[in-house]
Amino acid sequence: MTSHPITQVSRRSVLKGLTALGAGTLLVPSVLRQAYAAAVADGEVVTGSHFGVHYAKVEGGKLVAVRPHEADLVPVEQATTLVDWAYSPTRIKYPMVRKGFLKDGVNSDRTERGKGEFVRVSWDEALDLVASELKRVKDEHGNGSIYGGSYGWRTPAMLHNCFNNLYRLLNLNGGFVDDVNTYSTGAIRVILPYVIGTSYYDSSTWPSIIENTEQIVFWGSDPAVTSRIGWSVPNHAGLKYLEEYKATGKPSISVNPINTETAKLLGSDWVAPRPGTDVAMMLGIAHTLVAEDLHDTEFLANYCSGFEEFSAYLKGEPDGTEKTAEWAAEICGVDADKLKEMARSMAAKRTLITMGWSIQRQDHGEQGPWMAHTLACMLGYIGLPGGGADFTLHYASYGTPKGHGPSFAGFPAGEASKEVPAPIPCSRVPWALANAGEKYDYNGQEYTTPDLRLVIWAGGNPFHHHQERNKQIDFWQKPETIIISDINWTQSARFADIVLPISTLFERNDICNISEQNAGLCAMQQAIEPLFESKTDFWVYSQVAKRLGFEAEYTDGMDEMGWLKHIYEEGVAKAAEKGIESPDFDTFWNEKKVWMYDVTDEKRNYVQFAKFREDPLLNPVATPSGMFEILSRKIAGYGYDDCPGHPTWMEPFERLGGTMSDKYPLHMTSSHPDYRLHSQLDNADLRHSYEVENREPVWIHPDAAEARGIADGDVVRIFNDRGAVLAGAVVTDRMKSDVIRLQEGAWYDPAEPGTKGALCKHGDPNVLTFDKGTSKLAQGNCAHTALVEIEKYAGDLPTITTFDPVA
Amino acid sequence: MPTESLDKPAAAVPDPAFYQWLAGLFIREQTAETLGVLKAPETRREFHDLAGEDVLRGRLDRLLDVAANPADPEDQVLDLASAYALLFLGVGGSREGVPPYESVYTGPDGRLYQEATAEMETLLKDQGLWLADRREPADHIAVELELLAQLTARAADDAGAAARRRTLLADHLLVWAWEFCDLCRDRDRSGFYAAAAEVLRALLEAEERALKAL
Predict the structure, then answer these.
(1) pLDDT(A502) > 90
(2) Given an 8 Å threshold on Cβ–Cβ distance, is B93 in contact with A532?
(3) By the CB < 8 Å criterion, does A84 face chain B?
(4) Positive or negative CA dihedral for A617, A621, A625, A627?
(5) Is A389 helix (H, G, I), strand (E, B) or coil?
(6) Which one is the CATH code of B2-212: 1.10.3480.10, 3.10.450.50, 1.10.10.10, 3.30.470.20?
(7) B134 contacts chain A (CB < 8 A)
């Protein structure tokens, strides 16, 4: 290229040149320093995640492997992808502020949200901004204008629990508006206390069920998938129990439009109704029980109230429609003979109905669990080992006998203010953000939406879990300020104004209970230094507290290890009062690390409602009548048109064989993903093992595929009036021919970022779902009520960008 | 061979001050102060003096011209910060961004902290250096450039440094930095980082020639 000599280097230019370039201004501070010092020692530490108990291996300061701990009874594939998850290019590296917000503050153009215009700021600037925004909104509008519900699946941890850290900050700041219930269990949580007088999550134990049941009906549930994850650190006992059940050779029925992993494992009798018609199907079975005199009249008389009214409804007295098996068959698409056979089989065998949550994540979702419990009342096996109805056995480690050990309160969220507006049912939050002053019904009361101005959200992903993305984008432009702290650049972070980077579980110390049944305790020891400028939630909110003048109240003068020791010692002191001996903290932390608790015989053989069955007068259930309420006068008294006083079949807003099915002839189920936790891990390498053409797989029946000219491996467009997504076709006969399966959790990836109506290139099912409450009673979400059409995608394939840090 | 090459490459390679300066330019956003220095006439003179070569002078001039003539003088700092975030902090993603990490270009799946990071850490340790803070991995373009500056300054007296300098160039910078420069050229809408990348390209081309001349 050039023949003349290149710059002569000399001592002069090296030394002088460095300083001469703007007297050092251009050069400092340097990125290097003298002398290497290892930050974290090589070796293995013990930790845990939503996916099990693990050893984390560190080499040269880097996380290189995660392997199962011995306490993890059935390790799952999700854990294998945690290393690349920690080093994902989607990590938020620095505090960032949306450009327009940095320049114009609350007067900025909020349609810029989601479009990826961000500027890096220092932690000081970011924290100052968070503190000043909290102060501004509080001063100008009051604490009732701060939404801090922060819904989502936080990392399991006692101290670095992002909710409690955020809530503690906001409570010390004078209060905030919270949310109530969950996207998973919105309807069941509200309806079941009326019916059974207690919450939904009190399962009989698996050992008792395995020994005593004669048949399990998995109704819309797939524990072989949903027991892979846990809200606390799971030891996967649920997966082990499924294998044990299989070994007994006892029968099972799987009622599900999908031939589930569980049904395959157990060789279940697969019965596939139209999605959303379960209540009609159960009514047909109930009718058969009465018609053939198979129902347990004694149980109904002694333990239940309201069967007479319900029975009249079965016979069609109030509405002129008898709920015969034939009537039900017409709606649910399962033969009347099959329904009758099921009724006879369930009556003859001690049967446990274990119902999943999809049944109540749909229009009128309160009815399914209510009807399932009513069916179990009619069968009369409730309170006997191996019988009854259950609503949680399929999930995480429910059904595991409770451990006889200390339980820990964890990092305290502090006292909630009573001066702020009532919590909002979580699936109504996006609507509420944009509709201040609107009236809504919930659980027997009328409420008015508060004037929410500021949203501060820690460790959740509403742009995954909420329904009807295109409507949500509109709602999201209303709040003045949106602050998100997270590990990754989720779409929720992209739609925020202030984005704070949080470190992963591998980057801090913590402790966590093993399983929701408190089967043990697990140390979560730091493996690596926090990546980039990520920090713990505890640090972040203590620094905001400092700026608001209550740092000492926030930290109570303790640091990370100080808090862990405090939380531990508080728990073991209480346990000591019950005669439970515990190692001291240092011994636990340095030597024991994983501590599995003993299990007493009583807890091993626990049967839900056994005491009630033994003596219903002495041990009544906590309903107004003290009995199971097949008729709830309280609910009837609310006068809700979408939730009457007893289990009732009501047409959903759309369904196969019903409304909209002419235009959109396929039903989309968005079940819990096989290899993720909702949207968590979708940014990890494991997705390459199941994705098709880089897109979320959609299961299509061979008949439906053939009729549309779709082949396995094609990219398809799934659409309805609410939106459109691309996905990768997997042609399989593992479901009813007019059902497709697009599992929830694929990251939203709009072709035009931040733009309403954009095509999702990746396969987020919540682009296609409808944003509506289940009913005025529970206001749960209706994600499972969704009709769609599907076609082979003809356009050029757009590149997937949602896993880029920000697109 | 290290002993023979001590003088020859030293006589043909760019002034390490440029690497040190570019390291700073790629590791953090411009401020009003740094832009002020870039606009100062003395800086242009100093650059010319250090550059020696016409191609490099031309590219330095281009960068200084871009710095001196922003589209919106009032918002220059904010606009450049946004451009920086778009390119180097992930805001532009894979379509508009330019990941400043070697691992992304040479490892699997665009992942961070791959083999390149480990190799760079070894080079740093061998030279008795380490990251001033651990915010960025060792295969960040700025770390590689600052190490190159340090090794260039020491190569004449230190055979180990000279050998590491060759490793850093042959196994790292001259492998992936071209693509990095190409992406800056194609994707930077501010013009500033595209111009900076062209300066880097001129420096590395000189290094490549010097290596080949060995």
Answers:
(1) yes
(2) no
(3) yes
(4) negative
(5) strand
(6) 1.10.3480.10
(7) yes
